[in-house]
Amino acid sequence: MTTGVGISDCCLSGKLAEGSPKGREEEIGGISTYVAQPESGSNAKTIIFLTDIFGWKLNNVRLLADSYAKAGFYCYIPDFHQGDSLPEELLQDIEPPLPTRENLSLLAKGTKTAKVGATLGPWLFKHREAVVKPIIDGFIRTVRMIPRTDKVGTIGFCWGGRYAVLTAHDGNYGPGNGVDAAYACHPSLLAIPADLNPVTKPLSVALGTKDSLIKEKEQGKIQDAMAKLTNVPHELKLYEDQVHGFALRGDFSSEKDKKAMDDAEKQGIEWFQKYLA
After folding, report:
1. Residue 75 contacts by C-beta under 8 Å, 6 or more apart in sequence?
2. Which UniProt keywords apply (predicted)?
């Protein structure tokens, strides 16, 4: 039986990171793209970022790409929403941090849920799999053709997390044209186990134990599905008391949340250092 993990108000919550990204914007394969390169300039180990619903211009994801570049990876953040990402203002309009959320009245929660539906429904339909996945697949093929590109990985968050899992399937690209490893952080809209069964490339997953989309029951199903990938390197790490979106949009003022973000970053860097080597 397939379990669909949906999308909700916590996909629209989180904190904006401060700092100035050090990369540049280019057009690659007809898609506007943020590029962060390592000090060496080498693109031998390349990572493609699959963003959340806030898209390629969100400061958080650009700063994170800069961190991966500092670790030696050549990073691309393509605008897979093609200029139609959701506005950053929704980060706090929809849902406050976890302690506040837990004290909301039923009426307040109902109001927020209605607002989420009105915001996300049309956007998700416009950016459904049949529309977006061919764009992602085409970008991967384009990157593969860039000279000196050797190994390619994908890292995805929330909305993009599911697509990171899908890129780890082998049947979409042809020999030598797909990715070599993938990392999915708190994926949304994940079909369990249907999206995990076809995985053939090394896959790492990060989940928060307080994720309102992937609750304990779903986490167990993901663990069971990944355990069946006996011939594929895989890992699933759970982050205590972390909500959906924590790896990209956690609360920087909380020592515990900041550590979880740092550990999730380390998880991805170590995964790609091993499987993009």
Report:
1. 23, 35, 36, 37, 46, 47, 48, 49, 65, 66, 68, 69
2. Hydrolase
Q: Average pLDDT for residues 121-136, to the nearest whole number?
A: 95
Q: For the CA atoms of the chain, what is the radius of gyration?
A: 18
* pLDDT higher than threshold 80 for residue 104: no
Q: Tens digits of per-residue pLDDT, 18-77?
A: 789 999 999 999 999 999 999 999 999 999 999 999 999 999 999 999 999 999 999 999
DSSP annotation of 223 reads H
pLDDT tens, position by position, 241-264:
999 999 998 888 899 999 999 999
Report CA 186 to chain centroid distance, whole Å.
Answer: 7
- Domain carrying residue 31: 3-275
Residue 226 contacts residue 195 (beta carbons within 8 Å): no
Q: Can you tell me whether residue 191 is helix, strand or coil?
A: strand
d(CA 268, CA 207): 13
What is the number of structural domains in the chain?
Answer: 1
Terminal alpha carbon distance of the chain = 36
Q: Which two tokens stand for residue 204?
A: 């790492």
Structural tokens at position 249:
């949009």
Sequence-distant (6+) residues with CB within 8 A of 255 are none
CATH code, domain with 182:
3.40.50.1820
Which of 1-15, 50-64, 80-94, 246-260 reaches the highest mean pLDDT?
50-64
Neighbour tally for 114: CB within 10 Å: 11
